[in-house]
UniProtKB/TrEMBL annotation:
<protein>
    <recommendedName>
        <fullName>Probable GTP-binding protein EngB</fullName>
    </recommendedName>
</protein>
<dbReference type="InterPro" id="IPR019987">
    <property type="entry name" value="GTP-bd_ribosome_bio_YsxC"/>
</dbReference>
<dbReference type="GO" id="GO:0005525">
    <property type="term" value="F:GTP binding"/>
</dbReference>
<keyword id="KW-0479">Metal-binding</keyword>
<dbReference type="GO" id="GO:0000917">
    <property type="term" value="P:division septum assembly"/>
</dbReference>
<keyword id="KW-0547">Nucleotide-binding</keyword>
<keyword id="KW-0378">Hydrolase</keyword>
<dbReference type="GO" id="GO:0016787">
    <property type="term" value="F:hydrolase activity"/>
</dbReference>
<comment type="function">
    <text>Necessary for normal cell division and for the maintenance of normal septation.</text>
</comment>
<dbReference type="InterPro" id="IPR030393">
    <property type="entry name" value="G_ENGB_dom"/>
</dbReference>
<dbReference type="GO" id="GO:0046872">
    <property type="term" value="F:metal ion binding"/>
</dbReference>
<dbReference type="Pfam" id="PF01926">
    <property type="entry name" value="MMR_HSR1"/>
</dbReference>
<dbReference type="InterPro" id="IPR006073">
    <property type="entry name" value="GTP-bd"/>
</dbReference>
<comment type="similarity">
    <text>Belongs to the TRAFAC class TrmE-Era-EngA-EngB-Septin-like GTPase superfamily. EngB GTPase family.</text>
</comment>
<keyword id="KW-0132">Cell division</keyword>
<keyword id="KW-0131">Cell cycle</keyword>
<dbReference type="InterPro" id="IPR027417">
    <property type="entry name" value="P-loop_NTPase"/>
</dbReference>
Amino acid sequence: MADTTRSFRELDSQAQIDAALEEGRLLFAGSCDFIFGAQKLGQLPPQTLPEIAFAGRSNVGKSSLVNALTGRKTLARASSEPGRTKQLNFFNLADRLMLVDMPGYGYAKAAKSVKEDWQEMMFDYLRGRPGLKRVMLLLDARIELKPHDEEVMKLLDRAAVSFQIVLTKCDAVKPAPLARKEEAILAVARRHAAACPFLSLSSSETGQGIEQLRAELAEFALPSQSS
């Protein structure tokens, strides 16, 4: 089993890095099943596993990232009407980790009441879920940071939930602009107490960053029964 006394980001030997990557691969190669969709807080399933939640604007690529991580094409499905779904979708990963696909935010055509309901429900979920280990906050590398994104960062600060920014669709941005984007987003993250001091670059199309994300998320999983 990979050395879990330190974060994957802190590993310095190639042997440790390789072991962590393999631990992530094995975890996400395991069974992953949709178990429940909760539209109200009272519907949340019992907390039996550590949870990792995925948040982001509508069409940022949350479902694609979850599918890429788990190696499945249709495990998580995007809503046909972005901005309308208010459901928290729970996926049991190998009985070791729970993945939570949060509804997208910031859809321009969504009614004001829908946006307010989203914020209220998400805040209640975030602050009332002690098993929630981290929120992966997805941002589209191709577009500028939006006010809704910073609002969600402030929401996570208030809920005292650690969040890690993941830039999606990085394959669509050339290296120099992508490096500038990364630095600009890191500068914003430094203003938020709950933000991790690093971010991840990813592409569900090319697989960029997927192995590393698996290794990082494996740190939060329950130990394998075979280890």
